[in-house]
Amino acid sequence: MLPRLLPRLLRRSRRLRSLSGKHVLVTGAASGIGRATAVLAAEQGAVVHLTDLGADRLDEVAAEIRAAGGRVGHVEAVDVSDHEAVRRLARRLTDAHGSMDVVMNIAGISRWGTVRSLEHEDWRRLVEVNLMGPIHVIEELVPPMIDAGRGGHLVNVSSAAGIIGMPWHAAYSASKFGIRGVSEVLRFDLRRHGIGVSLVCPGAVDTPLTETIHIAGVDKASPTFRKLQARFRHGAATPEEAAEAILEGVRRNRYWVYTSRDIQLVHLLQRYLPPVYSVLMRTMSWGANKALPAVEQARRPERAA
Ligand SMILES: NC(=O)c1ccc[n+]([C@@H]2O[C@H](COP(=O)([O-])OP(=O)(O)OC[C@H]3O[C@@H](n4cnc5c(N)ncnc54)[C@H](O)[C@@H]3O)[C@@H](O)[C@H]2O)c1
Questions:
Q1: For residue 138, what are the domain limits?
Q2: Does 7 reside within a domain?
Q3: What CATH number has the domain bearing residue 93?
Q4: DSSP code of 151?
Q5: pLDDT at 12 (0 to 100)
């Protein structure tokens, strides 16, 4: 039994060596990492299908890709947290273009705070967008890939906050560890169908998310926040570098995809030197509270009175 089974277990799974002519769906394609990944995938010959919240911003990205000679298929604004809307998008997409070769869950939002300041809506919305959103996309688009029997690849964008316990990230981490759990199972479940899975764990990436992020208790116009934001941006990867890492991860069929070395290093510390990891996280928590004391002081409205 084992001698017959062993070669199958050890066999490398199929790789997508090139994106040329492949159909690639990108969520969050209107901005940041999603936009850069869609642009790069199109440069590499993929037919890209784009979705995000806003139709205007999506149209701009589609026009930019076409102007550069890239191929854009379906473009549709959808809220990924709306299962029915994702189902309709998937039906229109597969009716017009067949099953996808690569599905990329990149759309996401970020809200940070303490358990005293995060509102119930923050916890719920993060899970709805960052976890249920990718689940809706997976539910509707991966079964047609399996049925088509051509293999392919699934990319789920988690975060450093899907690996480590960063300050004030409890609600965000709930969603990002959630998508990590989904990915951890699917990397083995989908292997038999020749579908690879990549879990992308970006550290700091300089995208418009640094503007849209909500930190409970923090005035984003304050000089302190602006100074910290500038420091974050200075050390951050560019969306284009993140896109390179993601497509390299797809080509090499890598499960863990990091967009910067610091997160890869802290992940190694967490696994192999837990006491050092623990000291590092305590230091990070202390430093964050020193830099932005308003976060610890904040209360959600009904508790403020
Ligand atoms: N920028 C970073 O430092 C960083 C770090 C770790 C993880 N990430 C993750 O990377 C992914 C991309 O983020 P980004 O930095 O490019 O941010 P971004 O804000 O530039 O892009 C995110 C896109 O997702 C879209 N989106 C948000 N909610 C949506 C919804 N309900 N339905 C459909 N689309 C929706 C937004 O409209 C936006 O265009 C996110 O999942 C984010 O959590 C980013």
A1: 17-304
A2: no
A3: 3.40.50.720
A4: -
A5: 61
**Mean of the per-residue pLDDT values of the chain:** 95
Ligand 1 centroid–CA 108 distance in Å is 4
Q: Answer yes or no: is 171 within a domain.
A: yes
Q: How is the chain split among helix, strand and coil, in percent rounded to 5? A: 55, 15, 30
Q: Is residue 175 in some structural domain?
A: yes
> Cα of 52 to ligand 1 centre, how many Å?
10
Give catalytic status of residue 172 as yes or no. yes
Nearest to 97 by CA among 31, 22, 164: 22
Mutate to test the pocket of ligand 1, among 40, 109, 259 (most ligand atoms within 8 A of CB): 109
Give whole-number Cα distances, 240 to 33, 37, 244, in Å: 7, 7, 6
> Is residue 11's pLDDT more than 70?
no
- Domain count for the chain: 1
Q: What is the pTM of this model?
A: 0.95
Residue 190: closest CA among 146, 144, 137: 146
